[in-house]
Design brief:
alpha+beta, two-stranded parallel ribbon, elongated
Length: 58
């Protein structure tokens, strides 16, 4: 992941993961951590999309 981020031709890295990636990997460009919330407003829902793609593992 670190190699991929550092090779990316970008001006800034936006970190939207549950953990702060900058504490785990060395990022060679400016980065900013962001938070977000998902509010579903219609169909298909995120669950619908994921179930269609991956189904239920038994």
């Amino acid at each position: 992941l670190e190699e991929t981020i550092n090779k990316a031709d970008v001006d800034m890295v936006i970190i939207g993961t549950p953990i702060d990636l900058s504490r785990v990997v060395k990022i060679n460009k400016p980065s900013q951590r962001v938070r977000y919330e998902l509010q579903e407003i219609g169909v298909p829902t995120l669950k619908d999309v994921l179930m269609k793609k991956f189904g239920v593992k038994k």
